Structure formats: C-alpha cells, structure tokens
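tool_call: predict_structure(chain=1)
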Amino acid sequence: MGLWKKFIFILLIFLAIIVGLGWYLAPNDPLEKSDYIIAISGGDTAARADEAIELYEDGYAPLIIFAGGALDPSSPSNAAIMKRRAERAGVPSYAVSIEEASQDTAQNANNVAMLFEGEEPPERIILVTSPYHQRRAFILFEQAFPDTEIINHPAADQTWRRSLWWVDPKGWYLTISETIKTVYVLNSNE
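tool_result:
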C-alpha cells in the first residue's frame, strides 16, 4: 500500500471514529406513548423544556417532570423556571412536577427516582436532554430506574450536531468533556 493510500485509510478511520463518537453520545430512540416526560436542566435548558412541552402537546405522555436545581440558592431553580415556561405554553400545572435539589446528572436521576418512592415505578419514560449529554443521562437514569423503559429523545442544540460536532471548537469541548464523564460513569459501575 502506497503512502497516500495509507494516509487516506488512516484519515477515513479517524473520521469514522469522530463521527461515530457523536452518534454514540446522542442516542435518539423512536418515540412511543409513555407515562412521563422527564427533562433535565443544563446546557440549553430552554430547548430541553420546549422539547418536553412539545412532546406533551403531541400526546406522548400525560405528565412532565422537570429536574434541576439553581446554581445560586437565592434564585429560582432551573426546574421551576422550566415549569413556568411550560405553564406559559399552556401546559396545566397539575401535569408538571419538579425536582429542584439536584446539582448534577446523577442527582437528577436519583432525585427523580425518589419522587416515586412507595409507588409503582413508571413503565416507560421519555428522557429529554441535550444530544451530547443524552448517553450519560441515559446510563444514570437506567441505574435509578432499573424496571423502567427509557426512551432517549434529545432536544435540538444550536451548538452541537451529532455528525458535525467536530467542525466547531465548542463541539470539541462538549464532546471530549462528555466522553470523559461517560467513561467515568461506565467505569464507576463495574
């Protein structure tokens, strides 16, 4: 094999790994009717809330749970802000629950699971977050909800694309940091 052929072969493998990493981080399952839509704050919180609202309006689940605390304890929680956004969009307040104490994804999953203590866990939930965050969120929610089917449904993100994340420096930052966090979560469960 000539030098140029080797170079092109290595370049193609590198590109396949780069694109494959984006697809790994951002699973997107076919939608099905579910018991709950769970949207966790962070990244583009407004996009995550809007996606959950749209899923609710389209009849994919009768209830929404917004999860996420506030960085500033004197401010409203991200979950409360997301709930207000949903109510302004016409979602009735009885259809929205919030979890306001979590400060990270593991706490999102565990604190939302605690909302079901003493109750039957949901059969199926739709999990909404940013695409680069979807895999890690799924792993943590799967641990917190072992008897629940979780449907991955990432919200659109203006700064990150599954196949083209590598064309932007912010895409590199988000992808590399999220990959490291995902590897950590996977290794901490062995």
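agent: The domain at 27-159+178-183 is CATH 3.40.50.620 (Rossmann fold). Proceeding to next step.
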